[in-house]
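Notes taken during the Thursday session

The instructor put the following on the board and asked us to keep it in front of us for the whole hour. The protein is N-acetyltransferase domain-containing protein. We were told not to look anything up and to reason only from what is written here. First, the residues (396 in total):
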Amino acid sequence: MDHTIRLIAPEEDAAHARLMAHAFGHGRVTNDEPPARTPDHHDAFGLFDAAGLQAAYTLIPFRVHWQPGRSPLPMGGVAGVATWAEARGRGHVGALLRHLLETMRGRGQVVSSLYPFAFAFYRNYGWEWVGERRRVSIPLAQVPRAPEGADVRAVPAEDALPLLKPIYSRYAARYRGMCDAETHRWPQALRHDDNRTTYVYVHQHPGAEPDGYLLWRFGKDGHGQVREFVATTPEAHRGLFSLLHYFGTQCTKADFQKLPADTPLWSHVMHWDVETKAWPVFMARVVDVPAAFAALAPGPDVADGGVTIVVRDEHAPWNDGAWTITGEAGAVRCERANGTSPSVTLDIQALSQAFWGQPSLDALWRAGRLEAGDASSLRWLASLVAGPPVYTLDDF
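Then, after some discussion, the predicted structure tokens were revealed:
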């Protein structure tokens, strides 16, 4: 069937909104026209045939921290992938995702991430789970108070951004995949919604720079919600937890929506009533293999060396095939291999996980997700892609 994939025009926003309501809103009907586009509007692409808009996706540009001391990497955040129920099973979404990969490559977005409705579906197109995060509910009666709580103050959400950005930037640099302060979705984090206020609290010792913040919302059934918990010093951790202690007069539990796998929460509160769930940070993909590796810099513990790998990527043919990766004099090169026998063979899903760093290349080898003929080459590649834990505070 003939179709065209192109940007959705402003006059087509109403049709796009109806498709989003069908796919994600259970058909919720609204009489309101879509709001006028704002400067932070993100590109939405649609698949059109003779009957009109049949499927769509939205591409959000991010810059994400990757290696300490290096510039963030451009990342394509994928959202709003949808089609009408009656148009499913016709290859529309597959065509959209291949168009998406080409678009991200053309825009220099060397990596991509998304939150899947089904892991198996996006795995078919090269995305795979990366990282681990926690959702934790703690009983506030068990949270101790601390002297550092006296250094916590409330800040109106409307005035908070200049204070929060430097704190966030220092914290984000500790993790791989966290958006930089300019592309972090601040409006979503700070907005008041569901007829509830978002409260902002900042920890700052007198005479020192602000070093932590907490975004709090009162929830339902005696629970409060910690939308973001960012602390760059032990003092900030203790001070912000002390604030939670005093919320115990209004709520029984605090629900942390997202925490990194290396959270020090357990050093502040441990009790049988603490509830924890663990799941992947999101699904991610390498969009452009040579460009992604060229963006890396060997760490101080990485010896000069190289490896030849074979990548299988049926949906991004520019990645498919043999590559020689070398690291020398502080730079990484990734070029088409010229007859060199490969040391590592893997599909794009496993390569994406290895590049993001979690699960590690060694864990992938132990799980049978790759073939390695040379242990020393595998160790060198593992040292090249090793880095901070994967984490993000952004939903999209």
